[in-house]
Amino acid sequence: MKHTLLIICLLGFTVVSRAQDDAVITSYKGNIHVRNHEDGRLHINVPPKSTRKFKATGKIWYSDFGAKGDGKADDIDAIAATHAFANAYGLTVRADDKATYYISGKARTATIKTDTHFGKASFIIDDTDVERRGAAVFVVRSGKQPYMPTGITSLRKNQAKLQLTLPGPCLITVTNANVKQYIRFGPNQNSGSPQTDIFVVDGNGNVDMDAPIIWDFDQITSITALPIDETPLEITGGIFTTIANQAESKYTYYGRNIAIRRSNVTVEGLVHHVTGEGDHGAPYSGFIDVGNCAYVTVKNTVLTGRKTYTTIGSAGRPVSMGTYDISVNRAVNVSFINCTQTNDITDPTYWGIMGSNFGKNLLYDGCTLSRFDAHQGVANATVRNSTLGHMGINAIGSGTFTVANCTILGRSIINLRPDYGSTWQGELIIRNCVLRPSAKKLSHVSLITGSQTGLHDFGYICYMPERITIENLEIDDSNIPAGYGGPAIFADFNPQMKDESYQEQFPYVKTKEVILRNVKAASGKPLRISDNVFMFKDVKVLHNER
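The structure corresponding to this sequence follows.
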């Protein structure tokens, strides 16, 4: 979009503002007026007297721009107009606490560029009949414009500096479309994604080594720099209810959400409910959808797990569709603090609440949620002071994954996703945790689960964590049936690998060392290496009880 353009007309000193969020703002005498132009843009008139008042107070309300807030009239145009005007003049937006704003399926997105306080207001998002299922209800955007740096033709893993001079800190995204990675295996198999990395640099091109470059790029087919807003933006409050879609159950994702596409944003005190889910429906890509940004915090927020529906996957077999209330894609330094969900975190009829791709430095702290998940890789992740539900922790990636002071109600402490090679190139640290499997028919317990035949090319070398440290772990295996042999560190990742005759086409690099300190099982049975002793025969297990 173009920068805001102010044109001062000679007749009547009428000010026309072409805003970045696809609205035209005029300043004629009379009343505040919002109309939907035939070109699809909102045309907003705010008389000079009202403009002066708003600028003096520094804030505006949805009701100022015609929002009814009665739960019946469609308020999306008024809401979008309020934000468009606020963006043009740098004003805070406020909702009316007693209002209920109805948002229809109209393809209108409200662009947030200033602090927004939803307060105690309610918002009804009706997805039963939408014009464009991918249209966000709100999108949080930067006023800064991305651009394409020149002169960078290759990158090396852990490279510390780019030969760039930038106006300030930037989020860099690089792609090599000629290399495919994350070539998925299984019922949702695919041909992979272009090699991608995302990282932060300062104005001199120095890479933030807390989230380093994780791949060698022999060639770069695209590179984008997005300047990072240094001024924080806050979004607070709001009680949102989505009336779920009734579409066919197939992979036609709905993105009727709050999409965060600006860095340095905090969302606090938001509540999201879901109603109207039936026996079928299309999946959702996340109500809180964080992407192409850095330094985002979501805290003291209540979300809702979505009902699981099935469809036919790319391999021609029935699959359960991933559907999310939290989504993180191509984002660095994203934190979820003291977040919970409205439904039972152990109820398998609801899909795990979070999914992510291409993330770095992801954090759960003080959360009670059904799942943490990283599909196409995370570099460095921490889950602490939290309770994870039936889908537990699922991840692949690199760096350090720390799980501390947590209760895990899934089948394992961490599941290394088999569809992406069960790979973690780095270290796994587990401290002061309780594993309490919730599955009623569980016949065995393994701390680290996954599957790897060594026969599929995922587009990268697959690793198990090089070092695993497990300290002060309680395993509640008291309800396992007779014949249970005791908990294992590793699941049987490859039942076919029984001896040296098995040959991996794409060798799976095994763990070198496991350090155990104060690991106890309620059954009283000792911790074993695995049901597959051969596969893990070279793993060094150190018992350090200090």
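The helical segments are 48-57, 76-89.
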